[in-house]
Design a protein that fits this description.
Pfam families: Ribosomal_L30 (PF00327). Part of the 50S ribosomal subunit. InterPro entries: Ribo_uL30_ferredoxin-like_sf, Ribosomal_uL30_bac-type, Ribosomal_uL30_ferredoxin-like. It is a single chain. This protein is of the alpha+beta class. It has one domain (3-57): Ribosomal protein L30/L7 (Ribosomal Protein L30, Chain: A, 2-Layer Sandwich). Helix content is 31%, strand content 26%. It contains 2 helices and 3 strands, in the order E-H-E-H-E. Strands 2-1-3 form a 3-stranded antiparallel β-sheet, with no helix packed on it. The longest helix has 9 residues, at 17-25. The protein is globular and about 35 Å long. The two termini are 15 Å apart.
Length: 58
Amino acid sequence: MATIKVKQIGSPIRRTKDQRATLIGLGLNKMHRVSELQDSPEIRGMIRKVQHMVEVQD
């Protein structure tokens, strides 16, 4: 399966609890951390939910 690299570029400070939980679910909880995940509709939805705090890399 294809994979996606996601980098956290925004801070979870003053964000809602569900957005913080989504970052943790993506394997991100500190600035500039990169996580490599399987490409699936569920992961795409999680990325879309916190798109203002993450960056998708090639």
